[in-house]
Amino acid sequence: MGSASDNEALIPACEMLDKFGIPYEKAIISAHRTPDWLFEWAQGAESRGLMVIIAAAGAAAALPGMVAALTLVPVLGVPLPATALNGVDALLSIVQMPAGVPVGTLAIGKPGATNAAILAAEIIGVRHPEVRERIRDWRAQRAAAARDVKVP
Amino acid sequence: MGSASDNEALIPACEMLDKFGIPYEKAIISAHRTPDWLFEWAQGAESRGLMVIIAAAGAAAALPGMVAALTLVPVLGVPLPATALNGVDALLSIVQMPAGVPVGTLAIGKPGATNAAILAAEIIGVRHPEVRERIRDWRAQRAAAARDVKVP
Amino acid sequence: MGSASDNEALIPACEMLDKFGIPYEKAIISAHRTPDWLFEWAQGAESRGLMVIIAAAGAAAALPGMVAALTLVPVLGVPLPATALNGVDALLSIVQMPAGVPVGTLAIGKPGATNAAILAAEIIGVRHPEVRERIRDWRAQRAAAARDVKVP
Amino acid sequence: MGSASDNEALIPACEMLDKFGIPYEKAIISAHRTPDWLFEWAQGAESRGLMVIIAAAGAAAALPGMVAALTLVPVLGVPLPATALNGVDALLSIVQMPAGVPVGTLAIGKPGATNAAILAAEIIGVRHPEVRERIRDWRAQRAAAARDVKVP
Amino acid sequence: MGSASDNEALIPACEMLDKFGIPYEKAIISAHRTPDWLFEWAQGAESRGLMVIIAAAGAAAALPGMVAALTLVPVLGVPLPATALNGVDALLSIVQMPAGVPVGTLAIGKPGATNAAILAAEIIGVRHPEVRERIRDWRAQRAAAARDVKVP
Amino acid sequence: MGSASDNEALIPACEMLDKFGIPYEKAIISAHRTPDWLFEWAQGAESRGLMVIIAAAGAAAALPGMVAALTLVPVLGVPLPATALNGVDALLSIVQMPAGVPVGTLAIGKPGATNAAILAAEIIGVRHPEVRERIRDWRAQRAAAARDVKVP
Amino acid sequence: MGSASDNEALIPACEMLDKFGIPYEKAIISAHRTPDWLFEWAQGAESRGLMVIIAAAGAAAALPGMVAALTLVPVLGVPLPATALNGVDALLSIVQMPAGVPVGTLAIGKPGATNAAILAAEIIGVRHPEVRERIRDWRAQRAAAARDVKVP
Amino acid sequence: MGSASDNEALIPACEMLDKFGIPYEKAIISAHRTPDWLFEWAQGAESRGLMVIIAAAGAAAALPGMVAALTLVPVLGVPLPATALNGVDALLSIVQMPAGVPVGTLAIGKPGATNAAILAAEIIGVRHPEVRERIRDWRAQRAAAARDVKVP
Fold this sequence. Notes:
The structure is a homooctamer.
Chain A: H1 7-19, H2 35-43, E1 53-58, H3 63-70, E2 75-80, H4 88-95, E3 104-105, H5 110-127, H6 129-148
Parallel strand pairs in A: 1-2, 2-3
Helix pairs in contact in A: 1-5, 2-3, 5-6
């Protein structure tokens, strides 16, 4: 995440990763305030064994794209509503990457953070079938629960 | 893709997949015109051995989200500029997925199609290191070429 | 409706239908979380005797369009302000349907829910003149009341 | 339609109505340039036996809403891209109706015009089952054709 | 104004008219809920001696444009933030009038209401020099006061 | 107008003024490039006998607002589509004036220019009844012609 | 700043200038309410020895552009969220200056005010190396602090 | 600039710098394709004696912000219309920088490029009075020419 104030929006992502039994590291790294650290962190991601990176940032959110420029680990971006523009700035700064450097972008804010964790799990599931089975179980439970909701 | 008219925008995606030696199937399936086929196709994706799905669509683009609702294979979405709104409608219809069903969204149009293919390759690279190495080579060549461009 | 949290926005729609003496069924069905159920529900709508369907959803609102793809019963869509984009995402996801599968879209939120109920009544009034007469009475009362309002 | 220049956008609507064997009257009436005529035309719609009204207009498109204020016949609105804002102005002027006077709004431009005709046919189909059957046949043919399209 | 709920936004307009000694009538007339009354009211505006009309409305704000279509008295429009779109819908519904029927549009909400009153006074000042002189005095006082503000 | 390139958009305004027999002066004055001249021109408007001012400009269009700040003659603003934002920038720069200094804003581009001329004529008609009668004749002819248009 | 109500947004700018030891004058001058004073103030800026000007304003924010038109001192603009449009109007009114009169524009609201002060310091640092060194120290401390933040 | 295709938009900037006798270096450096080179280039800017940096880029334009993060030389950003969003994405990616790292942003496209050169000259003029005098002469000539333009 780009700032300590982004942490709250990422809590649902962490909960989701915990639910799927996926270990993760969590860091506050700003593309603009700590560019050196960003370089070091992103260029070392592959050798640290990271399988997916979730980068969340608000405003002119350069973090996801810069991470994607510095590693071959798939990068997912979560635009956060940190300014008067309520996340539209972050969405366009993350999703409109030029050809060559992709960031898989999720929805603005908490729904996007939740979904970034699920998509990360699906990506890990490409290699680890047991992770995919955990998502399958969770989805089945959720669908069953949805059919049991009493219409008010 | 959602319509035959979307094919041109996806040519750079196919070229990129070819470059990385990744085989793929290509289908025109509309969430709105052929919903039965969509169900059948998406629910069979996992058993057909697909590792990633790229879903491109314009207008009120329901295709990527519906595919994501029907499979555990990671889904990448490419919004296409098919209407008077020039892709803004497709972008929001794809990226603003509610919590629970993620679509990793790329940029509007051809840059997004190209990037969907690269991100798909990165995801496959999580499991197949040789694919990751091909992306590494391509990136290195591209960066070298970029430094050789003569400034006009 | 796509989610239990959408219920409050739909209360004025239910009140309006009650006022016009129109019976209705009410269900929470998510295009993305319970796609199977959506198929089953929408494909059975005609044989259950539904004359109009009101589908309300927020975010990347695929529900109205998918229902419209699966039935010949007229579908009215109500975009709900469920995200940081305050309903613009839902509006475009519902109204910008591609040629072939129409959704008659109403305003964002409660005014749209109210109007969906009235338009549903007008559509039923095409076949049942007594429903049209009830709308006529209600409109006349409302117009008379409007002329009696004291300007503050 | 609000202006003679809107006619081209409505050709696909007429073709669709012809395909479903639905007779129609076609008029150019401007809410702003010929308000008296609008009143007369809309207030007589019911007694002329119209079952649905399709109102298409661009810019600050008051036509669909004013027609809806003057009749109990269901009104469908088609926003046209007649200005520098490419139809966004017409879309908001048509869809954002206040509670009490509904307009079922379709997409901007030709796709919306086509869909207005199909939705009109679905509404007529609530009363005339043979019209619904014609839509069913057309949909089935279209879906079959869609599955036969050769992927380029 | 189009609705009793618009009254609060118009209080600064009334205060401004009072300040300039301009008498006015105030009415709640909805283009969509009371179209007959609108016709009657607007077509009689000239003979009642109105010199300018200020029409304020929110949502798909047809009121200012319809009034302008029915009278030769200059019409000023004030878009009100009555919906999830915060006045953007009303702004475009009022300002984007097609060629032939002008509405002089002011800013969204209270600043626009205040300015509608001042512009109305300026227009009346074209005929009544004493009104212009009152505006001149007010402006001079305001400018003098502005230079006396202590910078915090 | 703010620039010589704005002239073409203003031709319909001039034609309309000619039609109503209203003499006018026409000037190219930029708020940003010739601020001194703007001051001189606007502050002299009243003593030169101008009854209304039409100020058209594109981009960050400061011209209408600055003229309005410098005179008590009513100012009408026409936003022109001079940039990549197609007139949205000019529209907001003109219509969103702060309380105290009004600009009656018309639609973007040529329709707005035409309407500025008509509104100017209506304002002059507040003082000169013969001008109002010319607008009345023109409107009646236009409405009659509108009813004679053959529907294609 | 354009209004006394803008003061709060500018507090972080003042704090930043104080931190870098840069003296400044602070004034409330409205382009629209006190145009004469604006002229006088801006045309005297150079001779008063100002090295950079920070102009902050909301709504149709003409202040930064008009100041830039009247001086050769570099002008930085800060758009403030003073209206229903939350600063989008001010942003476009400030950044979309026509060729010839530049305003270096910062983000909407407080982040933009802070950054205006830092950019002003960087510009002064072009001439006064000791100011640049103070920014260098501040940046180094901030980066060090950023690396010490405990991830929650 | 971020890409060779950006060169055309920057020609007016170069012409303007030539006019003011300001020498410059010109480079094509992509934040996303050549991040290492960007670091090297930006971190060496100060020691190479650059007094101002103009960074132009389109799409999710990270270049200006990343350069600003890596140097204390003032950075001006020019958003280019390289995508379906016509520069809105680049504008928000450049102007909405978080507090701490400023980029002085100019208008979208060629007007912004021209103005970046003039603002750069004004900044250099803070240290080199002869550059300021050249801008003064150019402005005076331009204003004189503007007053001589024949109104068509």
